[in-house]
Write a structure and sequence with these properties.
Largest sheet: 6 strands, parallel
Strand content: 5-15%
Radius of gyration: 16 Å
Shape: globular
Strand order of the largest sheet: 5-4-1-6-7-8
């Protein structure tokens, strides 16, 4: 456990049950717009053409599976840039254009043999409340809608698109080991390869 890192989160100091839940996670599900992006939509004549992702989130989404934690993405939007980013990161549990997030979550959890209490969900807006009350740990960015913050076990310090997935990964991994140990994988040349 990385106690020095976790000391920066006072809410964890008084919530040993939350630390235990974080240690038991086997799946993390991310929303996209308002979580992995800043929520802005860039349109051109041909439709949505550009999405800005934070490279730090990419490291997190590739690192979690190295430590036995599945990564999935469920999002109401769909676009070529989004599909390209998920492909680049090797995200195989990817549900674009999904409006029934609860059904998609149940499908992923069942396919992976993960119980709802062994899963975390990271969302920012009210559509994410289809899933957030039913998982072990619900995370949201610092600028998530107030209702989502009410249902979150953990309101992050990062705002949408500013490294939310990286902060989630750091918190989860720090409950299990030092961050130095967690990031040994990411320092290997082969880490950047698919």
């Amino acid at each position: 456990m990385d106690e020095n890192f976790l000391a920066g989160y006072p809410s964890l100091q008084d919530a040993k049950s939350l630390v235990s839940m974080l240690q038991g996670l086997k799946l993390v599900v991310f929303d996209v717009d308002g979580v992995l992006t800043d929520g802005g939509l860039w349109y051109a004549d041909a439709g949505e053409q550009v999405k800005r992702f934070n490279v730090k989130d990419g490291v997190a989404m590739k690192l979690l599976p190295k430590w036995g934690i599945y990564v999935a993405v469920i999002t109401a939007k769909d676009s070529a840039p989004l599909r390209k980013r998920m492909s680049d990161l090797g995200v195989t549990h990817f549900y674009p254009g999904c409006h029934n997030k609860a059904e998609a979550f149940d499908e992923i959890a069942s396919a992976l043999g993960v119980l709802p209490e062994q899963a975390a969900y990271v969302g920012d807006d009210v559509i994410d409340l289809q899933v957030m009350p039913n998982v072990g740990v619900a995370f949201c960015p610092a600028d998530a809608h107030v209702l989502v913050q009410r249902y979150s076990h953990f309101v992050l310090t990062k705002a949408a698109g500013q490294g939310v997935a990286r902060e989630v990964a750091d918190v989860i991994l720090a409950t299990r080991m030092s961050l130095e140990s967690a990031y040994e994988w990411a320092q290997q040349p082969e880490f950047e390869k698919k």
